[in-house]
Amino acid sequence: MATQRILDFLATRRPSGPCLVVDLDVIEDNYKAFERALPSAKIYYAVKANPAPEILRMLAGLGSSFDTASVAEIEMALDAGASADRISYGNTIKKERDVARAFEMGIRLFAVDCVEEVEKIARAAPGSRVFCRVLADGEGAEWPLSRKFGCEPKMAVDVLRHAHKLGIEAYGVSFHVGSQQCDLDAWDKALADAKGVFEALEKEGIVLKLVNMGGGFPTRYLKDVPTAQAYGEAIFASLSRHFGNRLPETIIEPGRGMVGNAGVIKSEVVLISKKADNDNVRWVYLDIGKFGGLAETMDEAIRYPIATPHDGDETAPCILAGPTCDSADVMYEKTPYPLPLSLTIGDEVLIEGTGAYTTTYSAVAFNGFEPLRAYVI
């Protein structure tokens, strides 16, 4: 998965320490694939996946809109060249003063999932549009989302009714089927729930216009995943099944699916050891771990492909861990990772598919290790 451009960069620049290298050409290809897959949906790139200014500028130039989680991310999208009407404030948990600041900057599209959040927006961003996030079970996702965001569909009707009553526009419904979602049918039940909210409010004269279908589009790690086109066909079939000829405006919010396969982390083997003479499982310690950007190895949810200089040699299972003085800094132990027996201390390895949720999860100098450096080429 490391492109020739990434390999050439590493060979010529020889950066010391762990680092992420992202190939913009791959991201451009991914963006165009999403455009082809769902031509009627607006693409709102999830800035949290990787907010590198070079990525945001390129996507803004291609016509992307942006899903943001904070005032800082709104500022990043604006600085990249996006106009305020191409930015949504997609976090359902916002300070009222942040809503007011976003409103000052021209943002008029906000996510909510309760009447209390609606009331903040009515006070701080009068006349804005809101969409209510509905809970989805996330079954089939490798990184399921918790009940932290969203509400039951029946409550969504109450929330949007309350928005209408307070004079802000009840604009639509959103959901998220879980990150790294590999089930093509995952969107179907969520779209059925969205249609139910549309119908309930239409009976009261409140006409919703938008379905924000969220992210969840995967990147390839150790297993193949469906293509963007396959997702597009499945989602459009579900939209047609539930909404018939009255298709709503639609948004998708790819993050991982946009940038995940564009990035590779270069890392170094710091130590290889065993815990007992008769131990048949090696411990392999890298100079990057959970606190250096690989937080998604928590519970071994995301299993990254790892390329070594000895690929093709005989392998044996290893426990893979990071360099910090924290016992939680172990990536793969429940299911050990097969690595070549010829792997040695000082070898450089490439951790592939790491373009998303690595720099943003990297700790600030935990144990004195610097945050993950990144290069965008």
UniProtKB/TrEMBL annotation:
Residue ranges annotated for the Orn/DAP/Arg decarboxylase 2 N-terminal domain, each copy included: 25-259
Q: Does the keyword Lyase apply?
A: yes
Entries under SUPFAM superfamilies matching the protein: Alanine racemase C-terminal domain-like, PLP-binding barrel
N6-(pyridoxal phosphate)lysine, modified sites:
K48
Q: Which molecular function terms from Gene Ontology are attached?
A: ornithine decarboxylase activity
Q: Where is the active site?
A: C325 (proton donor)
| Top enzyme category | lyase
Q: Name one GO cellular component term.
A: cytoplasm
Q: Which domain of life is it from?
A: Bacteria
Q: What is its EC number?
A: 4.1.1.17
According to its UniProt entry, the protein's GO biological process terms are:
putrescine biosynthetic process from arginine, via ornithine
Pathway as given in its UniProt record: Amine and polyamine biosynthesis; putrescine biosynthesis via L-ornithine pathway; putrescine from L-ornithine: step 1/1
Q: Which keywords fit this entry according to its UniProt record? A: Lyase, Pyridoxal phosphate
**A Pfam family that the UniProt record links to this protein:** Orn_Arg_deC_N
Q: Which family does the record assign?
A: Belongs to the Orn/Lys/Arg decarboxylase class-II family.
Protein name stated in the entry = ornithine decarboxylase
